[in-house]
Write a structure and sequence with these properties.
2 domains; 14 helices; alpha/beta; seven-stranded parallel beta sheet; globular; binds magnesium ion; 324 residues; Rossmann fold; binds guanosine-5'-triphosphate
């Protein structure tokens, strides 16, 4: 049967047999959200949970895509089959890099790796649902590791990378990048730090800044109970210097999760966040419908006349939604 008329179930089977076009089609559905995306989740969930999920995040332009590109070259040589989900920044400031990224990344994606960009705008479920959906598909299709690249600004982006099995935070020399990363909440989610653009002046200062901040968080008791301390790897992603060491550190962290029996807890946390985001989304859709319906219109009018307070109107709407 031609791919155009294939059912989601057929597409899923074909994606598991390694058919890239089938996987591409499914990813498009996941990106759009809605009923098809849900159906794909039903299909993929039982077959997922095998791959190592790696998040790579950091400031715009820090070299995340360049580093990811190096890894997609390196990992197949080690017998691995990586997939990359690059979440495009929606900011107009960095949006210009999207096309460049796509071309550069597609250039290097041979048969041994799968690279996909996902736009942060224009899908109903939002990034918080589309990313886990896509990661699950890659995982179910046998890709390992699954690498998620997100820009480290915005809560959703940080959450998405920060709830991976292993999270890599990329900083660069100069301009107090480590301090910025701290402010963006990236320090807490980092399992491995990369000081990229180590060919530039100030790389050792950036390393020292990070060490200092880690020391401080150690004092305030934020260090992992198991005594794990995120290593700091120096990297020049432009020519691949340090990329093997980055991967070694990522693997060492994964091994640590396995050795300390904490991998499942981490995955449970990620699943909890996804379910929570789904609940939020389901309720938001209901709330919108109820607000626009007869009950909502009536309540809003009464609130406008000062008959009911906004608080009471909201409570009544929630009771309507829940059918209590
Ligand atoms: N000097 C130097 N430049 C680098 C290095 N790594 C990346 N770059 C350059 O930095 C710029 C940004 O690199 P990207 O890999 O696109 O950065 P990014 O973090 O993916 O950027 P966004 O996805 O837009 O946030 C590009 O011009 C790269 O060529 C490096 O190690 N040294
Ligand atoms: Mg990028």
């Amino acid at each position: 049967m031609s791919i155009r008329h294939a059912s989601l179930e057929e597409l899923f089977e074909r994606s598991q047999e390694g058919e890239r076009r089938a996987l591409g089609r499914l990813l498009t559905h996941v990106e759009r959200g809605g009923a098809e995306a849900d159906e794909i989740t039903e299909l993929a969930h039982p077959a997922s949970g095998k791959g190592h999920i790696v998040g790579i995040t950091g400031a715009p332009g820090s070299g995340k895509s360049t580093l990811t590109g190096q890894l997609t070259r390196l990992l197949p040589q080690m017998g691995l089959r990586p997939a990359v989900l690059a979440v495009d920044p929606s900011s107009p400031l960095t949006g210009g890099a999207i096309l460049g990224d796509r071309i550069r990344m597609d250039d290097i994606a041979g048969e041994s790796a799968f690279i996909r960009s996902m736009a942060t705008r224009g899908h109903s479920g939002g990034l918080a649902l589309a990313v886990p959906g896509a990661v699950r598909l890659f995982d179910a299709a046998g890709f390992d590791p699954v690498i998620i690249e997100t820009v480290g600004v915005g809560q959703v982006e940080v959450d998405v990378a920060g709830t991976a099995d292993t999270t890599v935070v990329v900083v660069t020399p100069g301009m107090g990048d480590a301090v910025q990363a701290n402010k963006a909440g990236l320090l807490e989610v980092a399992d491995v730090f990369v000081v990229n653009k180590a060919d530039r002046p100030g790389a050792n200062d950036a390393r020292r800044d990070l060490e200092l901040m880690l020391e401080l968080s150690h004092v305030s008791g934020q260090e992992d109970e198991s005594g794990y301390r995120p290593p700091i790897i120096m990297s020049t992603a432009l020519d691949g210097t340090g990329s093997p060491e980055v991967w070694e550190a990522v693997q060492a962290h994964y091994q640590h999760l396995i050795d300390t029996d904490t991998l499942e807890a981490r995955r449970a946390g990620r699943l909890r966040m996804e379910v929570k985001n789904r609940v939020d989304q389901l309720l938001a859709v209901k709330a919108e419908a109820t607000l626009s319906g007869a009950t909502g219109t009536d309540l809003l009018a009464r609130a406008g006349n000062r008959d009911v307070s906004p608080a009471e109107a909201a409570r009544t709407l929630v009771a309507t939604i829940l059918g209590v």
